[in-house]
Amino acid sequence: MQNESLKTETKEILIQLMDSIHQLTIDEYTERISLLSNATIGEHTRHIIELFQQLFSGYQDGIVNYDNRKRDLRLQESIDFATDCIANIVVELCKENKDLKIVSLYINQEAIIHSNYERELMYNLEHCIHHQAIIKIGLVSLNRFDVDENFGVAKSTIVHKKESELYI
């Protein structure tokens, strides 16, 4: 079943995120980094986690609103709390596909679009990779060079690089 690979890939990316932040000190996790517009690695981690949480929160009634995130500061201030929440997300990933409505505010008007769980899971996966690329910039600026070279890199880019190396 091809959609199982989406869940497996998402799980792997989230575990990669957990592993990377777990290596940090709390000072590194919460340090304001100028290259990240004074954001912290913790803030980017919180953002990733809360989008997944919103997807799961809206799954039951079929209405997901990513704008209504809790913005729980504990996620950006505590590595242990963040990794516990990521572990919970990994456990909760395996849901049946079903239709969803995505609600968001644009120019002071509520917009509703139709989607489904797997499409939103794919969105969250790509969103996570995007923020991991930003986190990687923060890690390098903290002189953390032990980051996996594929951290924050899209799977298609990884595959393309490998294929390109075959032709060199």
**How many extended strands?**
3
Q: What distance lies between the first and last C-alpha atoms, to the nearest angstrom?
A: 34 Å
**Total number of helical segments?**
7
- Order of strands, widest sheet: 1-2-3
How much helix, percentage-wise, in residues?
A: 55-70%
Largest sheet: 3 strands, mixed
Structural class: mainly alpha
The best one-word shape is globular
Oligomer: single chain
Give the amount of beta strand, in percent.
5-15%
Radius of gyration: 17 Å
Average pLDDT figure: 93
Low-pLDDT stretches: none
Q: What is the H-and-E element order?
A: HHHEHHEEHH
Report on the structure:
The chain is mainly alpha-helical and 168 residues long. The protein is 60% helix and 11% strand. It is built from seven helices and three strands, in the order αααβααββαα. It has helices spanning 2-22, 26-30, 41-59, 74-77, 79-92, 117-141, 155-166; strands spanning 63-64, 99-106, 109-116. A three-stranded mixed β-sheet has the order 1-2-3. A hairpin with a 2-residue loop joins strand 2 and strand 3 (109-116). Helix 1 packs antiparallel against helix 5, helix 1 (2-22) runs parallel beside helix 6 (117-141) and helix 3 (41-59) runs antiparallel to helix 6. It is globular and about 45 Å long. The termini are far apart. The mean pLDDT is 93.
What's a concise summary of this model?
Helix 3 (41-59) runs parallel beside helix 5 and helix 3 (41-59) packs antiparallel against helix 6.
